[in-house]
Design a protein that fits this description.
- The chain has two domains: 159 residues; 210 residues, Up-down Bundle (Rhomboid-like fold).
- Helices cover 59% and strands 6% of the residues.
- The longest helix is centred in the middle third of the chain and has 27 residues.
- 36% of the residues are buried.
Length: 382
């Protein structure tokens, strides 16, 4: 049975198939729209591509159409935490008398047939588009091929995201909690149930003069010591909540790398900032802040899916805890900031599954190395 399709519908299907299956764009659900398709790709040359088959019959309607585009752009910017966003606005049905004037961050083009693509400027951005528009398919064949292509692409993408976000067995986080609890009770018992600054110093607390004297191991041991039971419980609860999420998203080995890089970064920053004090630093909070930094980096790359979590949970949690660190006494905010920065840089080194680029990992390794070398230099040679 032959199916005769309207030229605009046929062109729309070919374009949608190309952008989704060839250029990794994903559909956006926009409420209240008809006869138009919205696609997004945060890594693409255009963050948003909108294909509109509605008739634009005069200048006023075109201006209103641009207003709608800007409104959706603002929504997507908020959701994806993007500073800037550009849109390719493909119009399939425009009165010949309507001039598509240029406007900021929106490139509007009129395409009424496949042949028109040859004369449009976006051909420079997508040079292979003419070869991959399923030109040989018509009617039902076109519908079936487009549907099958998009379904295969969607199934493949869903499998990737399912592997990343599905619940996994948590091991490293629980092991770190157990180690911290065991160390606390050992130190508590060995100190005759009287943990003070001197006892914490004996067990490996962070004290800058001793580190400069050669006891470098304190940079690590201090992160497994806690001043009292409340301190331990607060940090272990935080490690449980944040650590299980990070380990689930990035895996055990990467989690361990981020934890210890964050721990080291936090200890170095704390030792530098407390160099002229008698403070003995202890606690896992610096490393936990590093996990928050890694979660922030991960969430930014998957902000299409985690944008609301980033905006409403992760970022406020970081800001509130840093504010408490500045306001309350006895909180080592230098360790928190050092851990946070170390966690972000460690996340850059490891990359993000299915979002990573080799040059970004190289840049991350360079930045992390320079950062740690700088902190080491300031601590030991300045």
């Amino acid at each position: 049975m032959d199916v005769i399709m309207d030229q605009k519908d046929e062109l729309l299907m070919r374009l949608v198939n190309y952008f989704i299956t060839e250029k990794n764009y994903a559909p956006i659900v926009v409420n209240g729209v008809r006869d138009e398709i919205w696609l997004q790709n945060q890594e693409g040359p255009y963050k948003i591509i909108r294909i509109n088959a509605n008739y634009i019959h005069n200048k006023e309607q075109y201006e209103f159409d641009l207003f709608k585009v800007r409104n959706v752009m603002r929504q997507v910017k908020r959701k994806t935490l993007s500073w800037s966003m550009n849109t390719l606005n493909i119009l399939l049905n425009v009165n010949e008398n309507v001039s598509l004037d240029e406007t900021k961050n929106i490139e509007s083009v009129y395409v009424k047939s496949i042949e028109d693509i040859e004369s449009n400027q976006f051909l420079d951005t997508f040079p292979d588009i003419q070869d991959k528009l399923l030109l040989n398919e018509k009617g039902l064949d076109l519908i079936f091929n487009v549907t099958n292509n998009i379904n295969r692409k969607t199934a493949k993408e869903n499998k990737v995201y399912e592997n990343i976000f599905k619940p996994k067995k948590i091991v490293v986080t629980y092991a770190l909690i157990v180690i911290n609890v065991i160390v606390f009770f050992l130190t508590y018992i060995l100190s005759s149930m009287h943990l003070d600054a001197y006892q914490l110093l004996l067990f490996g607390g962070l004290y800058t003069p001793l580190i400069k004297a050669g006891e470098i191991w304190r940079l690590v041991t201090s992160a497994f010591l806690h001043a009292n039971l409340i301190h331990l419980l607060f940090n272990m609860y935080s490690l449980y909540v944040i650590g299980t999420q990070v380990e689930n998203f990035i895996g055990k080995k990467k989690f361990l790398f981020i934890y210890f890089i964050s721990l080291l970064s936090a200890s170095l920053m704390s030792a530098i900032m407390n160099a002229n004090t008698n403070i003995v630093g202890v606690g896992a909070s610096g490393a936990i802040f590093g996990l928050l930094g890694a979660l922030l980096y991960f969430g930014f790359h998957y902000r299409v899916y985690l944008g609301s979590v980033l905006r409403n949970q992760i970022i406020p949690l970081i800001i509130i805890n840093l504010i408490f660190g500045f306001v309350l006494t006895g909180v080592d905010n230098a360790a928190h900031i050092g851990g946070l920065v170390g966690g972000v840089f460690a996340g850059m080194v490891l990359g993000i599954q299915k979002r990573e680029k080799f040059y970004e990992k190289i840049n991350g390794a360079i930045v992390l190395t320079i950062y740690l070398v700088f902190l080491t230099y300031v601590l030991f040679f300045r």
